[in-house]
Specification:
Blueprint (H helix, E strand, L loop, with lengths): L1 H10 L2 H20 L12 E5 H4 L9 H13 L4 E3 L1 H4 L15 E5 L7 H16 L7 E5 L5 H4 L1 E4 L1
Antiparallel strand pairs: 1-3, 2-3, 4-5
Helix pairs in contact: 2-6, 4-6
Protein backbone atom coordinates (compact mmCIF):
# COMPACT_ATOMS: atom_id res chain seq x y z
CA UNK A 1 0.00 0.00 0.00
CA UNK A 2 2.89 2.32 0.78
CA UNK A 3 4.42 1.70 -2.65
CA UNK A 4 1.08 2.44 -4.33
CA UNK A 5 0.68 5.64 -2.33
CA UNK A 6 4.21 6.69 -3.28
CA UNK A 7 3.50 5.99 -6.95
CA UNK A 8 0.34 8.07 -6.86
CA UNK A 9 2.22 10.90 -5.17
CA UNK A 10 5.00 10.77 -7.77
CA UNK A 11 2.54 10.72 -10.66
CA UNK A 12 1.24 14.17 -9.75
CA UNK A 13 4.63 15.76 -8.95
CA UNK A 14 5.25 18.35 -11.67
CA UNK A 15 9.05 18.15 -11.37
CA UNK A 16 9.07 14.36 -11.80
CA UNK A 17 6.65 14.52 -14.72
CA UNK A 18 8.72 17.26 -16.38
CA UNK A 19 11.90 15.17 -15.97
CA UNK A 20 10.28 12.09 -17.54
CA UNK A 21 8.81 14.04 -20.45
CA UNK A 22 12.24 15.63 -20.90
CA UNK A 23 13.81 12.18 -21.24
CA UNK A 24 11.24 11.21 -23.87
CA UNK A 25 11.91 14.44 -25.78
CA UNK A 26 15.68 13.84 -25.54
CA UNK A 27 15.35 10.32 -26.99
CA UNK A 28 12.90 11.54 -29.64
CA UNK A 29 15.28 14.27 -30.82
CA UNK A 30 18.26 11.90 -31.09
CA UNK A 31 16.24 9.39 -33.14
CA UNK A 32 14.77 12.05 -35.42
CA UNK A 33 18.22 13.55 -36.02
CA UNK A 34 19.39 10.12 -37.22
CA UNK A 35 16.38 9.62 -39.50
CA UNK A 36 14.87 6.78 -37.46
CA UNK A 37 11.14 6.50 -38.30
CA UNK A 38 9.05 7.25 -35.23
CA UNK A 39 5.42 8.13 -34.60
CA UNK A 40 4.79 11.84 -34.14
CA UNK A 41 3.85 13.56 -31.99
CA UNK A 42 5.60 11.69 -29.19
CA UNK A 43 3.80 11.19 -25.90
CA UNK A 44 4.92 11.82 -22.38
CA UNK A 45 5.94 8.27 -21.47
CA UNK A 46 7.36 6.62 -24.60
CA UNK A 47 8.70 6.88 -28.11
CA UNK A 48 7.04 4.60 -30.65
CA UNK A 49 9.24 3.31 -33.45
CA UNK A 50 7.45 2.73 -36.75
CA UNK A 51 8.60 -0.79 -37.60
CA UNK A 52 6.67 -0.79 -40.87
CA UNK A 53 8.74 2.14 -42.14
CA UNK A 54 11.88 0.87 -40.39
CA UNK A 55 11.62 -2.48 -42.23
CA UNK A 56 9.55 -1.84 -45.38
CA UNK A 57 11.05 -5.01 -46.92
CA UNK A 58 9.64 -7.30 -44.20
CA UNK A 59 6.02 -8.38 -44.82
CA UNK A 60 3.67 -8.01 -41.90
CA UNK A 61 3.29 -11.79 -41.47
CA UNK A 62 7.06 -11.92 -40.81
CA UNK A 63 6.58 -9.75 -37.70
CA UNK A 64 8.52 -6.55 -38.40
CA UNK A 65 7.76 -5.02 -34.98
CA UNK A 66 8.86 -8.15 -33.11
CA UNK A 67 11.95 -8.30 -35.33
CA UNK A 68 12.84 -4.73 -34.35
CA UNK A 69 12.09 -5.44 -30.69
CA UNK A 70 14.44 -8.46 -30.76
CA UNK A 71 17.22 -6.69 -32.67
CA UNK A 72 17.30 -3.83 -30.17
CA UNK A 73 17.49 -6.31 -27.29
CA UNK A 74 20.28 -8.27 -28.98
CA UNK A 75 22.21 -5.05 -29.72
CA UNK A 76 22.18 -3.58 -26.22
CA UNK A 77 19.87 -5.45 -23.84
CA UNK A 78 17.30 -2.65 -24.10
CA UNK A 79 13.80 -4.00 -23.54
CA UNK A 80 11.01 -2.64 -25.70
CA UNK A 81 7.49 -3.85 -26.52
CA UNK A 82 6.12 -5.04 -29.85
CA UNK A 83 2.71 -3.61 -30.69
CA UNK A 84 1.91 -5.11 -34.07
CA UNK A 85 0.62 -8.30 -35.62
CA UNK A 86 1.90 -10.55 -32.82
CA UNK A 87 0.13 -8.48 -30.15
CA UNK A 88 -3.01 -8.22 -32.29
CA UNK A 89 -3.49 -12.00 -32.10
CA UNK A 90 -5.75 -14.08 -34.27
CA UNK A 91 -9.35 -13.63 -35.30
CA UNK A 92 -11.32 -16.14 -33.19
CA UNK A 93 -13.74 -16.86 -36.03
CA UNK A 94 -11.18 -17.56 -38.75
CA UNK A 95 -7.99 -18.37 -36.83
CA UNK A 96 -6.10 -16.01 -39.14
CA UNK A 97 -3.75 -13.26 -37.99
CA UNK A 98 -5.28 -9.87 -37.36
CA UNK A 99 -3.40 -7.29 -39.42
CA UNK A 100 -3.26 -3.97 -37.57
CA UNK A 101 -2.66 -0.84 -39.59
CA UNK A 102 0.56 -0.07 -37.71
CA UNK A 103 3.58 -2.12 -36.66
CA UNK A 104 5.05 -0.31 -33.68
CA UNK A 105 7.72 -0.83 -31.05
CA UNK A 106 7.19 1.04 -27.78
CA UNK A 107 10.30 2.38 -26.05
CA UNK A 108 8.82 3.25 -22.65
CA UNK A 109 10.60 5.43 -20.13
CA UNK A 110 9.68 4.35 -16.57
CA UNK A 111 9.48 6.98 -13.85
CA UNK A 112 12.67 7.54 -11.85
CA UNK A 113 14.59 4.64 -13.32
CA UNK A 114 16.77 5.92 -16.12
CA UNK A 115 19.27 8.73 -16.62
CA UNK A 116 20.13 10.56 -19.83
CA UNK A 117 23.07 8.15 -20.14
CA UNK A 118 20.52 5.33 -20.37
CA UNK A 119 18.71 7.30 -23.10
CA UNK A 120 22.02 7.49 -24.99
CA UNK A 121 22.49 3.70 -24.76
CA UNK A 122 18.95 3.09 -26.03
CA UNK A 123 19.29 5.67 -28.81
CA UNK A 124 22.65 4.33 -29.98
CA UNK A 125 21.33 0.75 -30.02
CA UNK A 126 18.32 1.80 -32.09
CA UNK A 127 20.57 3.79 -34.43
CA UNK A 128 22.85 0.76 -34.93
CA UNK A 129 19.89 -1.50 -35.71
CA UNK A 130 18.56 1.17 -38.08
CA UNK A 131 21.82 1.34 -40.05
CA UNK A 132 21.84 -2.47 -40.36
CA UNK A 133 18.11 -2.80 -41.10
CA UNK A 134 18.54 -4.20 -44.61
CA UNK A 135 20.05 -7.42 -43.22
CA UNK A 136 16.92 -8.23 -41.16
CA UNK A 137 14.65 -10.79 -42.80
CA UNK A 138 11.89 -11.09 -40.21
CA UNK A 139 10.73 -13.90 -37.98
CA UNK A 140 8.65 -17.04 -38.30
CA UNK A 141 6.15 -17.99 -35.59
CA UNK A 142 6.91 -21.53 -34.41
CA UNK A 143 4.86 -21.70 -31.18
CA UNK A 144 2.02 -19.67 -29.74
CA UNK A 145 -0.58 -19.83 -27.03
CA UNK A 146 -4.23 -19.16 -27.74
CA UNK A 147 -4.34 -16.09 -25.48
CA UNK A 148 -1.74 -13.36 -24.99
CA UNK A 149 0.56 -15.05 -27.44
CA UNK A 150 3.01 -12.14 -27.46
CA UNK A 151 4.11 -13.09 -23.93
CA UNK A 152 5.18 -16.66 -24.67
CA UNK A 153 5.32 -17.06 -28.42
CA UNK A 154 8.45 -18.52 -29.91
CA UNK A 155 9.81 -17.12 -33.12
CA UNK A 156 12.84 -17.98 -35.19
CA UNK A 157 14.76 -15.91 -37.72
CA UNK A 158 13.70 -16.45 -41.34
Amino acid sequence: MEAMASGIEESVDDDRIRARVGQVEYLNKKLLDWGVPIVLPVGGHAVFLDAGRFYPHIPQDRFPARTLDAEIYIEAGVRTMERGILSAGRDPATGLHRYPRLELVRVTIPRQVYTLAHMDVAAEAIEEVFWNRDSAKGLELVYELRYLRFFQARLEPV
